[in-house]
Structures are given as structure tokens and as C-alpha cells.
Design a protein that fits this description.
This protein has 82 residues and is mostly helical. The chain contains 1 helix and no strands. The longest helix has 58 residues.
Length: 82
């Protein structure tokens, strides 16, 4: 009788350990998939920004742009060369 109780408790403990391992593995796979999706979205945004910048550069090739506004300049001392 005592052996049957021991066997049942042991089996239940083994099943609980297996269930916890399966759940942890599943959560790990979900987290990995989420990370891959966010990395793919970041890559696509970066690729799209590069494409837009390239198109704008091609459209404005040869054009002169004058930016109004105050720009800070660094005061540089020059030496005369003989």
C-alpha cells in the first residue's frame, strides 16, 4: 500500500517537472519569435529610410539649397605662411 502511494506521488512529481519544462520551453520560443519580429521590423524601417533618402538625393541632384537661420561658427586663427 505504501509503495503505491510512493509511486503515485513520484509519478505526479515527474509529470509536474515535465509540464514546467514544456511551459518554459514554449515561453522561450515565444520570446525568441517576438525578438525576431521586432528585429525584422527595425531592419525594414532602416531599409525604407535609406530608400527614401536615396530617392530624395536623386531628385535634388544638381540643385542648390540655401538654409536660412543662424549657425554657430568656430572662430579660427590663421597664421601667415611665408
Amino acid at each position: 500500500m505504501l509503495f503505491l502511494l510512493f509511486a503515485a506521488n513520484f509519478l505526479r512529481t515527474v509529470l509536474i517537472i515535465i509540464a514546467v519544462l514544456v511551459i518554459v520551453r514554449f515561453i522561450g520560443k515565444l520570446m525568441n519569435a517576438k525578438r525576431n519580429i521586432s528585429e525584422q521590423e527595425r531592419f525594414n524601417k532602416q531599409k525604407e529610410a535609406y530608400r527614401r533618402e536615396k530617392e530624395e538625393t536623386q531628385r535634388n541632384i544638381g540643385k542648390v539649397s540655401i538654409f536660412k537661420g543662424r549657425k554657430e561658427a568656430e572662430d579660427v586663427d590663421y597664421e601667415e605662411v611665408d
